[in-house]
Amino acid sequence: MTSSIASFADWMKQVQSTMEEALGASLPSDATVPARLHEAMRYAVLNGGKRVRPLLVFAAGDLFDADAASLQRAAAALEMIHAYSLVHDDMPCMDDDALRRGKPTVHVKYDEATALLVGDALQSQAFVVLSEGVAEGEGQATRRLAMLRLLAQASGSAGMCGGQAIDLASIGLALSLGELEHMHQLKTGALLRASVLLGALAGKTLSDAEIAALDAYSVAIGLAFQVVDDVLDATADSATLGKTAGKDAADNKPTYVSILGLAESKALADKLRDDAHRALMPFGEKARRLREIADLIVQRKA
Amino acid sequence: MTSSIASFADWMKQVQSTMEEALGASLPSDATVPARLHEAMRYAVLNGGKRVRPLLVFAAGDLFDADAASLQRAAAALEMIHAYSLVHDDMPCMDDDALRRGKPTVHVKYDEATALLVGDALQSQAFVVLSEGVAEGEGQATRRLAMLRLLAQASGSAGMCGGQAIDLASIGLALSLGELEHMHQLKTGALLRASVLLGALAGKTLSDAEIAALDAYSVAIGLAFQVVDDVLDATADSATLGKTAGKDAADNKPTYVSILGLAESKALADKLRDDAHRALMPFGEKARRLREIADLIVQRKA
């Protein structure tokens, strides 16, 4: 058990270091005009975050032995979409946050106009990266197109942006548990699901049964991720989190903790981890990393 | 000559009306949750604009007899990227404009957070639309991937967003003519070039010579478009333009008129139209609509 946990930690470190390099190479150099925009794009993406989405991409890639180059592209694209959403989400007209990953947010370090353009350009760059480097053969191109379509759908108004719109509209409202789950399934769940599916799709075209199993896993870890976020927001301090703690309560935003209470929220997170494990059963030993990520999401302290 | 001009006007009206329908069908319904976001996305895209980019897509599609469905997708994607850039560009932290196409801008009619999300979601939706509906058959998927890559590159920091960053950084500076042209080639030229290339690519894979000819045409009309914009900004009134006139001068932004003067700017626009016509010579009669668009860009009054 100890050796298995150690090996997951090593695997995670290796993916994170691979991705730091891949992201650095996928972003325009800060010596290229417009230099300030490029510097700010790199600031927003590099040296930060747990890289949960890339970890999911690589873990799902194990299922069907996907090649490393395709996985790196998918993971870089997803991380750019995620980073852009954080930059825009932190802006004064949205959450108005000054601290992210323990550093000043982009609009604080640069300015609002730059933050707006950084987010816009990072979204474009995600699609640049994912549309490049397709191996010869119409089958490869068809699979890559499916990956691009999934990423775009998960990012837009039927996914992440839609969830943020619902989140904005819900401040001060007493959401039901079902409404809260729907919001999070769009706001964070859609991109986590896309990470799992893109990683698997980098290996082969998926059957309906495979998609259904991966969807069940994704829904479970997506909700678990949010439940744990709410628990940490209510219990941890800003220094540990690397962002302003207790902000949701201060903003009067509905959370799992405010609806279910702390103990029941923790119990829900454990149940969702079990759901995630169960969904992976058809994939056997090859789903090991996906199982370990579900554990990580529930056990994390920041 | 009169009948040729009349027939161009008819063709233009037909493309515009086709695109109004195609855009309406390509955007989520405002009855779908999140309804306010979807309503605002439709407000930003529908019933407005000259649809210059779709006109270029359809005109370039004529060169190689591209099918109408592919052209509609490409044109809708380009128009969504264009519309999102206007929404973000109008926001208080950028140009802070209250009027666009004779109507209140999105952040005025809705709010800033919604305007931010409208732009973000429209960019995603552009890639959704362009990644869907690929026909079976050798080369179709590969060609569509090339179109997606071009659109993403033209939208990001090497294209439109990069041009906006340079534009922002140049307020109050005395740009040289070369620096001004570089800024506009990125800010508006990149998307016009993508319109021409996507329309042509919807018909067939392009040779290097064909790309070079279409690039020469695109550079000429892109600069002509901007020169005429500057002339109109200096000479027309807000009611005719449907946006705030004289704003560039008030903001102390460098323009062709401020650098070259009015008469020389008008002469430059005429020269650029001739350049555009010359670049199209290899395509013969099939380039008729592209020629007429160059004329339209230089002769327009708003």
Helix content of chain A: over 70%
Q: Compute the gyration radius of chain A: what is it?
A: 19 Å
* Structural class by helix and strand composition of chain A: mainly alpha
CATH class of chain A, please?
Mainly Alpha
The CATH architecture term of chain A is Orthogonal Bundle
Instruction: Output the CATH topology of chain A.
Output: Farnesyl Diphosphate Synthase
Question: Regarding quaternary structure, how should these chains be classified?
Answer: homodimer
* Total strands of chain A: 2
Largest sheet: spatial strand order of chain A: 1-2
Instruction: Give the CATH H-level superfamily of chain A.
Output: Farnesyl Diphosphate Synthase
The main sheet of chain A comes to: 2 strands, antiparallel
Distinct helical segment count of chain A: 15
- Overall pLDDT level of chain A: 92
Broad shape of chain A: globular
What is the succession of H and E elements of chain A? Answer: HHHHEEHHHHHHHHHHH
**In whole angstroms, how far apart are the ends of chain A?**
23 Å
* DSSP strand content of chain A: under 5%
Keywords (chains A, B): Isoprene biosynthesis, Magnesium, Metal-binding, Transferase
Protein name (chains A, B): Geranyl transferase
Organism (chains A, B): Noviherbaspirillum saxi
GO biological process, one term (chains A, B): terpenoid biosynthetic process
Keywords:
homodimer; 302 residues; mainly alpha; Farnesyl Diphosphate Synthase; two-stranded antiparallel ribbon; 15 helices; 2 strands; 1% strand; Polyprenyl_synt_CS (chains A, B); Isoprenoid_synthase_dom_sf (chains A, B); metal-binding (chains A, B); isoprene biosynthesis (chains A, B); Geranyl transferase (chains A, B)
